[in-house]
Write a structure and sequence with these properties.
Blueprint: H1 19-31, E1 36-45, E2 57-58, E3 60-73, E4 78-83, E5 88-93, H2 103-117, E6 126-132, H3 142-157, H4 164-179, H5 186-193, E7 198-203, E8 209-213, E9 219-225, H6 237-254, H7 266-271, H8 273-279, H9 281-305, H10 309-326, H11 332-342, E10 347-352, E11 360-366, H12 370-385, E12 391-394, E13 401-402
Helix pairs in contact: 2-3, 2-4, 3-4, 3-5, 4-5, 6-9, 8-9, 9-10, 11-12
The structure holds alpha-D-galactopyranose.
Length: 404
């Protein structure tokens, strides 16, 4: 279910067409002139995977791939949504909201449901067309882009006066409670608070954040799409979250100061290893990964400050090993892509990105090595995965904004 065809080397500047124009035009055909056009981006995450719901640290950024929304307010409590790319539409009565069989709709309806749950139960309906160029189920968080785009539009159209951090929380709770995925705050945070040429050093417990410059012209972020499509709702994502919670209860018995894996140190995890093993032999490895990953994020932030991208890359490689061996959220295709990339001269780091079980690897590649990287990886796609290569060069871009 790709939103659009990809060339083997899908640089955004080569991406087809005028996306906001296309979505605006679809709106005109269905509903007239839109009041608002919103751009809501996908995200990458340099490092800090599966740390957000463990209240740790992450280093994401919004990218130059997005979903655009054309929206107009209505006076009643009906919504008419139209997915331009999927050629699908839905009319909803907001006073009778329930989960839809139409999967994409739940990310949108969840926003209304969560607003109502938080006391904003008189928000009127909208007419809305949307579509864009974030590949679906490839780990770039098209779901958060959908949620954030609508939340941003409703906030603007109906004067809800929520700041971007509050909107990110709303989107996370919508996904937790309506869609049923126990995700953390990283994706909506990156979508809403992204800044061009900056990553976000995010503390997922306090929601403190800092925009960290990421402007090296000689280094590019390249995604390799395994084309193994697995969404969080049908993966073991929630199982991992639950395993971490059990780990925390074991740690907290010995260390009452541990409220989340964020609070635990590697020594603490070693000290309770037997106890963890008695509960379930997987728990030790799950906890070891998360505690190690939080440290890696902090180390990567320090390395970025020193402009030491070699160290950042080495940390990314270590993250991949942890996700593959300890957290067990990788898959053979992602392992092949990451391991092959690590061997290409000029690749600083490579790892699976996002929730896992499919989706993309993220690679830090020297500009001068881009051609070699493309050729080597294209051969890996063809010879080892039996697939046409799909790669994206991503630039770090602004978060959700109104298009003028
Ligand atoms: C998905 C979730 C995020 C985060 C990542 C893994 O993208 O939506 O909250 O947990 O997986 O880091």
């Amino acid at each position: 279910m790709e939103l659009q065809a990809h060339s083997p080397w899908n640089h955004p500047s080569m991406a087809a067409g005028d996306q906001p124009g296309r979505i605006r035009e679809a709106f005109r055909r269905h509903f007239g002139e839109p009041s608002l056009v919103v751009r809501s981006p996908g995200r990458v995450n340099l490092i800090g995977e599966h740390t957000d719901y463990n209240l740790g640290f992450a280093l994401p950024g919004a990218v130059d791939r997005a979903i655009w929304f054309a929206v107009s307010p209505r006076r009643d409590r009906f919504c008419r949504f139209c997915s331009v790319d999927l050629n699908d539409s839905l009319i909803v009565n907001l006073d009778k909201l329930s989960r839809s069989e139409t999967r994409w709709a739940n990310y949108l309806l969840g926003i209304y449901a969560q607003l109502a749950a938080e006391g904003k139960n008189a928000v009127p309906g909208v007419d809305c067309t949307f579509g864009g160029d974030i590949p679906i189920a490839s780990g770039m968080s098209s779901s958060a882009a959908l949620e954030c785009g609508l939340a941003f539009a409703l906030n603007t159209l109906f004067g809800l006066r929520m700041d971007p951090v509050a909107l990110a929380g709303l989107c996370q709770r919508a996904e937790n409670r309506f869609v049923g995925v126990d995700c953390g705050i990283m994706d909506p945070f990156a979508a809403l608070l992204g800044r061009k040429d900056h990553l976000i050093r995010l503390d997922c417990r306090t929601h403190d954040f800092e925009h960290v410059p990421f402007t090296r012209p000689d280094i590019r972020i390249v995604l390799c799409d395994s084309q193994v499509q697995r969404s969080l709702w049908n993966s073991e994502y929630n199982v991992r979250h639950a395993e971490c919670e059990v780990g925390v209860t074991v740690l907290a018995e010995a260390y009452p100061e541990v409220w989340s894996l964020r609070d635990a140190t590697p020594d603490m995890v070693e000290a309770v290893r037997d106890h963890l093993d008695r509960m379930d032999h997987l728990l030790y490895r799950r906890c070891r990964y998360v505690v190690g990953e939080n440290r890696r994020v902090l180390e990567a932030c320090e390395a970025l400050q020193r402009d030491d991208l070699k160290t950042v890359g080495a940390l990314m490689n270590a993250t991949h090993a942890g996700l593959r061996d300890d957290y067990e959220v990788s898959c053979p295709e992602l392992d092949i892509l990451a391991e092959a990339a690590m061997d290409v001269p000029g690749v600083l780091g490579s790892r699976m990105m996002g929730g896992g079980f499919g989706g993309c690897t993220i690679n830090l590649v020297e500009e001068t090595a881009l051609d070699r990287f493309r050729e080597t990886m294209a051969a890996v796609f063809r010879d080892r995965l039996g697939k046409s290569p799909v790669m994206h060069i991503c630039c770090i871009d602004d978060g959700t904004t109104e298009e003028t």
